[in-house]
């Protein structure tokens, strides 16, 4: 890949695009088809009750779809590795952000008061609730 | 460099679109691409704030998400997913057309992409309009008369839920009808909550309150499924408005990004019609494409997280 880029002298610029990788149409169509199939799978799987597994399965399928988009539609498969480093580094920070926030979110449950939120009083009583 | 230092033809023996501070087209293109990737990471981090809020809310209140997602139409959400994936496909193909200098193909593909974006927003408008009319809104504006389609709440009289009778149906206080013995026993089951077997992982992590009102509804633990219909064994969970808060925040920010993408794609079309893009000069198409794929990427996660909860 680096060899190819080194070869791209200004003279060869005039023929085909040498600045970036040109993706063949069949590959784009194949990725599009795979994304459609995975969308159908994720809708179908949602109708099967697998307990907690449903959430992880849905997120797993979404991650596969996202990888297809990033690698082929967004050219990261052929791109300079530095761009991939930036993207993966970003994902690491996102996982740190959400992961640490989630560990903390269960730290104060004992002191949390349940019930309807204060702003909701007199606005909307839960449907079917016995009241008055 | 003062223009008098050399004759004009020497000063500009490079492509017109190569800026003076770059060594080569390749360097200019790679710098631009690095810049757009850095921008995309800031976008991902901005959206991750909302995803983080979603994760914390759902971890604490799974019952709200289990109940309220029935208000959303999976069909419309899936339709929008397909529309957006297709627009990503035409955008990626458009980048290829720009790279190969296929101007007419590029203009058509960009136009299809823009049309898909319009269709996405149209479907979104229908969804938002339904939510608005049914008072399925964040905060104190949440005040629906009806439970979601496919959900039965025992406390609501069947007569109240007849079409044409919606004025009285489900108003706070109104659902108090005569209860059948079965419904009364269901209400009792709600008053003395028992954990349903196998449902432990889905239980709200906040227990009933020691003081104040009744705490979180346990009734969703005892929901029964028959086909695509669920029977809630008790009243609606508390604080369902939180779901619509996160729903409108996430889809709204995403929608703003779709609108921004439409503006730049329209700009690309006007440029492409003049034939400025070619093998040496397609960076603008490529970079707008990267942004558009990111918008698609966010929706790929939003769709299962908001519409497909089970």
Please bin the fraction of helical residues of chain B.
Answer: 55-70%
Strand content of chain A: under 5%
Low-confidence stretches of chain A: 1-15
Please give the share of residues in helix of chain A: 55-70%
List the helices and strands and how they pair.
The complex is a heterodimer of chains A (132) and B (310).
Chain A: H1 2-7, H2 25-46, H3 53-73, H4 81-105
Helix pairs in contact in A: 2-3
Chain B: H1 8-11, H2 25-60, H3 62-68, H4 74-99, H5 103-133, E1 151-152, H6 181-191, E2 224-226, E3 229-231, H7 241-273, H8 283-307
Parallel strand pairs in B: 1-3
Antiparallel strand pairs in B: 2-3
Provide a descriptive summary of the structure in words.
- Chain A is mostly helical.
- Chain A is 56% helix and 0% strand.
- Chain B is elongated.
- Chain B has helices at 8-11, 25-60, 62-68, 74-99, 103-133, 181-191, 241-273, 283-307; strands at residues 151-152, 224-226, 229-231.
- By secondary structure, chain B is mainly alpha-helical.
- A three-stranded mixed β-sheet of chain B has the order 1-3-2, with no helix packed on it.
- Chain B contains eight helices and three strands, in the order H-H-H-H-H-E-H-E-E-H-H.
- The model of chain B is unreliable at 159-201 and 208-219 (pLDDT under 50).
- Chains A and B meet through helix 2, helix 3 and helix 4 of A and helix 2, helix 4 and helix 8 of B.
Which key features would you list for this structure?
heterodimer, A: 132 residues, mainly alpha, elongated, disordered N terminus, B: 310 residues, three-stranded mixed sheet, 8 helices
